[in-house]
Structure formats: C-alpha cells, structure tokens
Amino acid sequence: MLSKLREAFDKLTRGAADKAAVEEVVKDIQRALLSSDVDVKLVLQLTENIRKHAFDPLPQTMTRKEHIIKLVYDELVKIMGEKKSDVSLKSKKVLMVGLFGSGKTSTSAKLARFYQKKGLKPALVCCDTVRPAAYEQLQQLAQKIDVPFYGEKFEKDPRKVLKNALHVTKADVIIVDSSGRNALEKDLIDEIRDLNHILEPDEKILVIPSDIGQAAKQQAASFHDALNITDVIVTKTDATARGGGALTACHATGAKIKFITIGETMEDLQQYDPEKYMARILGMPDLETLLDKAKSSIDEKKAIKMVTGDFTLEDFYEQIEGVQKMGPMSQIIEMAGFGKLANKAGNVDAQAEKMKKWKYAIQSMTSEERANTDIINSSRIRRIAAGSGCRESDVRELLANYGKTKKLMKNFNPNKLKRGDMASMMRQLGLKG
Ligand SMILES: Nc1nc2c(ncn2[C@@H]2O[C@H](COP(=O)(O)OP(=O)(O)OP(=O)(O)O)[C@@H](O)[C@H]2O)c(=O)[nH]1
Ligand SMILES: [Mg+2]
C-alpha cells in the first residue's frame, strides 16, 4: 500500500532530520513503493530525486517533513499527471482496453454517462464477442442511462461488429468496449490492433484496476506496443487504496490518468485530480493543506523579488498575467490584508488582448533589451513592433507600465500598505478603471 509512505514520513517528526534520518526515510519510501508493486527501476529513479533535493533550503512556511512529502508528491504526480485531467468535449471515438475483469464494460457506461451529463450525445458499442453475457451487460447499462447501444449478439468477429456499428451509429462520442482475457495472449493483441485500425480512435484508454500488482508493467507495455495508449483510467479505487499498479502503468505507457472510478453506480466516475487522488492513495486527507502551503511559499519568493524592485520585464509580464488569473499578485494583495481585491482588476477581455500583444512584444526583444529596457530607443521600438505585429504605441505602453511598476515596487512594503495605496497602484498599472 502506498499509505505505508505515511509511516515513513512520520519518522521525520521524531528526532532530527539529519542526513542519516533522511536516508532511513528514503529506504522506507523504497520499501513502501516496492510493497505497492511499483517496478524496482522506477522506485530507484523516484527516490534518487528525493534524496537529491531532501536538503534543499526550506521555504519559511514549511518543515523538513512537509518538504519531503512535497518531494514525494511531485515525483509521483510527474508520472501519473501533474494537473487535473483535461477532458475535451469535442466529438471523438474512444477505445477501451484492459485485461479480464479490469472494469472496461462498466467504465465504458460510466464514461458515456459522464459525457451525457456534459451535454454530448454518447453511444456505446459492444465489441466483446468472447464473454458470454458481455452483450447483455453493456446493453442493460446503456438502457439504464438512456444511451444508444450497438452490438450483435451472435456475431463472433468483433471486427465485423465494429464496422457495422460505425455505419449506423450517429453520436458525438462513440465508446467501444473490447473483450478481456485472463492473460495477455497474442489473439487478444491482434484483435485490439485490428479494432484500433478500424475505429481510428482519438483516445485509447487502458483500464487498470487499483488492485493490480506487478503484472501492471508488462500488461501496460504490451497494450502500449500494440496501440499507443493515450490515457489511463484507474478503477475500483473505493475497494483498495493501492495505487502502485497505476503508477507503473502510467510510467510504462507515458500516458496520464484521465479518470478514476470510485464505486459501482453510473455516477461513480471522477476526473483525475492529482491532489485528491494522492490524498486518497497515500491515506493523507490533509495533503491538500500541505500543498497549499508549498504553493504560497513559492508566491512569497516571487513577492520578495517583486518588492525589492529586482525584477525583469519577464517578471513584470508574469505578475500582470498573475493578476488576471488571481495569481501571485493577488496573493500579495491578500498578504497585505485586502482580501480578493484583485477580482476587481478591470475588464478581463481587454486586458487579455493587451497581454497577448505585450507577450509578443517581449518575445520580439533581444535578451539584452529584456535585461535592460533603457537601451530600447525609437528604432528598436520600431523593430520590436514590426517583429511582433503590434503598434509602436503598444510597445511604448508596455515599457512605460513596466518602468512605472518597477518604481512602485521599490517603494512597496506590504506591511505598511494602506487600502488607498493599493487601489492607486492598481489604477496606475491600468488594472483598475
Ligand atoms: N466497487 C467497485 N467495483 C467496480 C468498479 N469498477 C468496476 N467494478 C466492478 O468490477 C466488476 C468487473 O467490471 P467489468 O466492467 O465487467 O469489467 P470488464 O473489464 O469489462 O470485465 P471483462 O469484460 O470480463 O474483461 C464488476 O462487478 C463491476 O461492477 C469500481 O470503481 N468500484
Ligand atoms: Mg467487459
């Protein structure tokens, strides 16, 4: 169980976190990963990075223990997906593959339900001609969620079924369920390969049950060889909190987790969210709080850079962009005690348009110009404008705002800031009407 990792982390609270202690924890982490069926090579690779960064300088808000948990988290999500999964709502064809009993059929229906709730028209196709009741199983699920279903009860060749299905099925999202096997056999791989050629799917999803062990690597690698897996769905996460198999499968395919399933009803499918998923498999419900702390310490560093006036044109761009996204700048405003003032940061669309121009302009500058904007004279402005497709006045506006901000930031002390100062600063930056 990956939750064994938690026990390893706990050791860091006791005693000093010196080199020997961290080394012991690294060993514990290795044992925990190995006993969760994570591939040996992968375990060594993961822990090497943790060892390397264990003694990096600590951000003020974090303890050594929290820092190491964050390192482990970063390593794990690098493989399984660092961001919440991206689910496109365009028309598409999806092929579901996986071994016997992994959850392909039920997950196909859950996925159809997911897209149905998003306002798309899904359809389910049964290409499992091996398991006796496969046809009825998917048909019943399709009926339950009121989604069109195609299958041929007596046809033994799934290739024929799929070709026919594609002729008659009109839907935004076509989800094709395939058959499983006890083990990876050549006939299954050949069949999957053929279905892949006939369907030409946009998404090729490997369905992996949470409780899969060491077999994950070989399985994932074989499916990947046959059809280039694009996404992973981890099923049965309610039944066991293992997670090592999913990690290995993602590593073997290079694909990220798109969804997890958390139960047997048609609503039990969730988009993958790294923080939530890791909290689940590590058995650490408070993980999100810890990660929030890590995020705010990064913003703190940026803020310090900003208030010391030592910031470049690129930093400037990032800060302004941050205001749009309620990012770092709003953090500073919060630090200064003004709550979500940045919400009122003016007309978002016009601002976004301006940002785009500025971005191109910055990209058209030489690194020398970026480092020292004082050298940007009229002829350089002309060149930058021409290179970025902006007007010269846009470039001048960018430079003027950057200069103003730099000056403001030098005198900016978040602790002494008054409400009026902040509003005036926002106005001067052209961020408030
Ligand atoms: N508790 C729980 N059960 C699940 C979950 N996902 C699937 N199952 C159950 O696992 C069993 C197997 O699921 P199927 O969808 O039939 O698996 P399959 O891969 O299509 O199986 P074959 O077609 O035989 O290869 C069913 O009883 C499902 O209800 C889940 O997230 N949680
Ligand atoms: Mg099935």
- CATH architecture of the largest domain, please? 3-Layer(aba) Sandwich
Tell me the fraction of residues in β-strands, as a range: 5-15%
Task: Count the beta strands.
Answer: 8
Task: Supply the number of helical segments.
Answer: 19
Q: What do you see in this structure?
A:
The protein has 433 residues and is an alpha/beta fold. The protein has 3 domains: 79 residues, Up-down Bundle (Four Helix Bundle (Hemerythrin (Met), subunit A)), CATH 1.20.120.140; 181 residues, Rossmann fold; 121 residues, Signal recognition particle, SRP54 subunit, M-domain (434 Repressor (Amino-terminal Domain)). The chain contains 19 helices and 8 strands. The protein has an 8-stranded mixed β-sheet with strand order 3-2-4-1-5-6-7-8, with helices on both faces. Helix 9 links the parallel strand 5 and strand 6. Helix 1 packs antiparallel against helix 2, helix 2 packs antiparallel against helix 3 and helix 15 packs across helix 17. The relative contact order is 0.09. About 5% of the residues have low confidence.
Tags for this entry?
433 residues; 19 helices; single chain; Four Helix Bundle (Hemerythrin (Met), subunit A); 9% strand; 434 Repressor (Amino-terminal Domain); alpha/beta; eight-stranded mixed sheet; binds magnesium ion; Rossmann fold; binds guanosine-5'-triphosphate; 3 domains
List the helices and strands and how they pair.
Elements: H1 4-11, H2 19-35, H3 40-53, H4 64-80, E1 92-97, H5 104-117, E2 122-127, H6 134-145, E3 149-150, H7 158-168, E4 173-178, H8 186-199, E5 203-209, H9 215-227, E6 231-235, H10 244-253, E7 256-261, E8 269-271, H11 274-282, H12 287-307, H13 313-324, H14 328-335, H15 348-363, H16 367-371, H17 378-388, H18 392-410, H19 419-428
Parallel strand pairs: 1-4, 1-5, 2-3, 2-4, 5-6, 6-7
Antiparallel strand pairs: 7-8
